[in-house]
Design brief:
Strands 1-4 form a two-stranded antiparallel sheet. A two-stranded antiparallel ribbon has the order 2-3. The chain has 185 residues and is α+β, with helices and mostly antiparallel strands. The protein is rod-shaped. Helices cover 66% and strands 15% of the residues.
Length: 185
């Protein structure tokens, strides 16, 4: 049925997936534009383990009669940073948010247009098949009508009751219909 053909077309045609992907991309881009206006937090952690601290030699006589070996620094060193920023006003980001809304609407419109186009094309193809089927049926009926008529006129021509032009006209009509049927099939 036409309904089943349309349903099949709407579930299996490749363009449906493409337009749904485009709509999902537009929605994600909109989310990304909104997220650029939200609170942004960055953090970093740095840990250093100085396995062997450097030794500094202090010459004798400066702090006492003997020279001193002193290790300066710490074996473990940890630094942590957190950076939090919030955009208060950025016209470019606001424009991106508005553009994201527009892109979602455009993607939805394109998806709807594609669906309508698929329904139209499927209906058109379905009706063409019905027309060709009916045309084939009419041609077959014409062949069934012309064949016995051709035989009757041939017998009448042999008896001298019919004209040869009438027989040739029916013969040409029969060949024409057979040719048309061959073109349809």
């Amino acid at each position: 049925t036409l309904e089943k053909c349309i349903e099949f077309s709407l579930t299996h045609h490749a363009s449906i997936g493409v337009f749904q992907n485009n709509m999902q991309i537009a929605k994600e881009q909109k989310k990304q534009a909104v997220s650029s206006y939200l609170l942004q937090a960055n953090s970093a952690l740095n840990f250093t383990d100085n396995l062997k601290l450097p030794t500094t030699v202090i010459p004798a006589g400066l702090f006492g009669p003997n020279e001193l070996n002193v290790q300066l620094g710490q074996q473990y060193n940890t630094n942590a940073t957190i950076d939090i920023t919030q955009t208060i006003y950025d016209q470019t980001k606001l424009n991106n948010i508005k553009t994201g809304n527009t892109n979602v609407k455009i993607a939805q419109s394109q998806d709807k247009q594609n669906t309508e186009l698929l329904i139209y094309n499927t209906t058109r193809a379905y009706l063409q098949v019905l027309i060709y089927k009916e045309y084939e049926s009419k041609l077959t009926d014409n062949i069934r009508a012309y064949s016995p008529l051709s035989k009757i006129l041939e017998l009448q021509l042999e008896k001298g009751v019919a004209l040869e032009t009438d027989f040739e006209r029916i013969k040409v009509s029969l060949k024409s219909v057979e040719y048309q049927l061959g073109e349809v099939i």
